[in-house]
Amino acid sequence: MPQVRTRFAPSPTGSMHIGNLRTALYEYLYAKSKGGAFVLRIEDTDRARYTEGAVDIIYDTLRLTGIKHDEGPDVGGPYAPYVQSERKNEYLFCAERLIERGAAYRCFCGKEEKGEDAKNAEQPAKYDRRCLRLSKEEIAANLERGLPYVIRQLIPEGRTAFRDEVFGEITVENAEIEDQVLIKSDGLPTYNFANVIDDHLMDITHVMRGCEYLSSTPKYNLLYEAFGWDIPAYIHLPLILNENGEKLSKRCGDASFNDLIERGFLPEAALNYVALLGWAPPDNREIFTLEEMAEVFDVNGISKSPSKFDYKKLTWLNGEYFKNMDFEKFFGMAFPYIERAVKGGADKRKLAEMVKTRVSFLREIEEMLDFVDAAPPYDTALYTHKKMKTNPETALSALEAVRDNAGRLAVFENAALYEALTALAAEKGMKNSQLLWSVRTALSGKPTTPCGATELMELLGRGETFGRIEAAITKLKGELC
């Protein structure tokens, strides 16, 4: 069997859309799972939408995610560089061959002359093939006069059937297919035509793309047949919907991969999540490295149904990546945020250990630790917690008990402090949660903290701890009396 060859062929029209990244990822995973080659091709024939710097965005995104192409720009091989706009004559030559074979024809109609029945129709009508009826003499005369023209594919009668690896057998009546433009009036190929020519010349065996291209596939196959070329296998991917249930689209302002990175998502977490948008891994596993994905990827796991982009799920996954991250790597990433939040002499490594399992985004660190240097202003209503069965009155009793028994807290380390405070709670007839919640609130002035009360005590030290407890007692007495 021939080597499996897939290709990612993005257009340089802006940032990397999530759907485009998923296509690249699946093509990469499929090629690697079969021991094949993954090829990168830049399709730049749409000059009207060409965006300066977009090619670099494509390269940078693939590098950032670890998706490495085996052939293409920056790598070499027989197809690198492969710039469509520089191969205009090759596409034109192929289109002329189709004209000679009766599978295409020149069309001299302007954009406004698609057909008489299109003038008053709400939906654009198919081209009425008026130029197909031109005689050789009329065509020669038009060419002599220098009239601009496009080259259209001539769709034959009958029906076209093909098999997709995800959607199964599909049959389309050719009468429903318009004679698509292959070569535009500027001499450049359309996306559909260049796509077929390039896939053939690059020996692509498997084509992956969004299911919105299912309706175009019969046109592609008719071109392959007209040339007498082998047709590749097709793997069409389900739609990705945004949180409103609409098709995810960068034109509608939906997030690109770069947007996700700017929002604080880790590249590896974002890529992992993108993999799950339409693919069900074995054993319902959710967290993978890129290498692990390649080992288990199977097109049988690709769904026909649309997938919804869920920011809550992505946020959870991002947090799981921080939890599982090597500590030294996390510390290096977190240190600038910790340093901005804490100016005093608190142990920065200990702070990193505290927040590592609690953050979903690095930027959360500053808010988590903004109490370390000084307790922020807070409302005593914060002491009220139904689950902990505490309120300002019980909090005052708890804090006074801790202050009055300060001498029993000789060892200011977490384990010893916890043992001493739970024993104190039992003596005073309190639940552990009542005493510990009160202490944690007094020390942090926050409803949530990256660690428990006794860990905060160890972090702040004896002097700062009892200074904040005394201030909290004064605050509570002032409001309760």
Quick description:
With 481 residues, this protein is mainly α. Helix content is 43%, strand content 9%. It has a domain of 106 residues: Arc Repressor Mutant, subunit A (Orthogonal Bundle), CATH 1.10.10.
Keywords:
single chain; 481 residues; mainly alpha; Arc Repressor Mutant, subunit A; three-stranded antiparallel beta sheet; two-stranded parallel sheet; 11 strands; elongated
Describe this structure in words.
By secondary structure, the chain is mainly α. It has a domain at 375-480: Arc Repressor Mutant, subunit A, CATH 1.10.10.350. It is built from 17 helices and 11 strands. It has helices spanning 18-33, 54-65, 88-100, 136-144, 191-201, 217-227, 257-262, 267-275, 290-296, 311-324, 327-341, 348-356, 364-368, 392-404, 414-427, 432-444, 453-480; strands at residues 5-8, 37-40, 104-107, 150-153, 159-164, 168-173, 181-183, 206-210, 233-237, 240-241, 307-308. Strands 3-4-7 form a 3-stranded antiparallel beta sheet. A two-stranded parallel ribbon has the order 1-2. Helix 1 links the parallel strand 1 and strand 2 (37-40). The radius of gyration is 33 Å and the shape is elongated. The model is unreliable at 112-122 (pLDDT under 50).
